[in-house]
Specification:
Elements: H1 8-11, E1 20-27, E2 34-37, E3 43-45, E4 48-52, E5 55-58, E6 69-75, H2 80-86, E7 93-100, E8 109-121, E9 125-132
Parallel strand pairs: 2-4
Antiparallel strand pairs: 1-2, 1-7, 3-4, 5-6, 6-9, 7-8, 8-9
């Protein structure tokens, strides 16, 4: 996917005063969303203030053989994110966006179909895997057809 016209000149410069930033949104129904940016100060994009947290994202290899899994590591500088994740009953949804500091409202890339699974943490880091929903592993058909529940099929 090509870059937007606004950010294309920035990407072609050998040095630029503008930064490329990843925005991370962690959401779960019934809980307020967490908005994080891999920056050292708060960042405003599309009217939302993203809080500074150091995090790393390792994108999966595109081998065509398996479902993609990205690795996410967030610095555990305060216990807020750990407490948020521990309070959830289901894996939270994750949205990863790439923007520049020159045009913070223009999203260059967006991954919005991810779930955070296999979370572990220690005093320094929170790690987990970002996985897509595996629709290929769902049972089909979803129902068991037996005479008790579907008597019309067994006449």
């Amino acid at each position: 996917m090509p870059l937007t016209p606004q950010n294309r000149p920035i990407s072609q410069q050998s040095a630029s005063p503008f930064a490329w930033l990843f925005l991370l949104t962690i959401t779960e129904p019934g809980y307020p969303p967490l908005y994080l940016v891999n920056n050292n100060e708060p960042f405003l994009s599309r009217g939302i203030t993203y809080q500074p947290y150091a995090f790393g994202l390792v994108l999966p290899a595109d081998d065509g053989e398996s479902l993609p899994k990205a690795a996410l590591t967030i610095d555990n500088i305060s216990g807020e994110i750990v407490e948020y994740i521990r309070a959830l009953a289901t894996p939270p949804e994750i949205v990863v966006e790439l923007v520049t500091s020159a045009y913070p409202d223009v999203v260059e890339k967006r991954l919005d179909f991810l779930k955070l699974r296999n979370v572990s943490y220690d005093a320094l880091n929170i790690t987990g895997q970002l996985e897509v929903n595996n629709v290929l592993s769902l049972a089909f058909p979803d129902e068991n057809y037996d005479p008790t529940h579907f008597p019309g099929l067994f006449r």
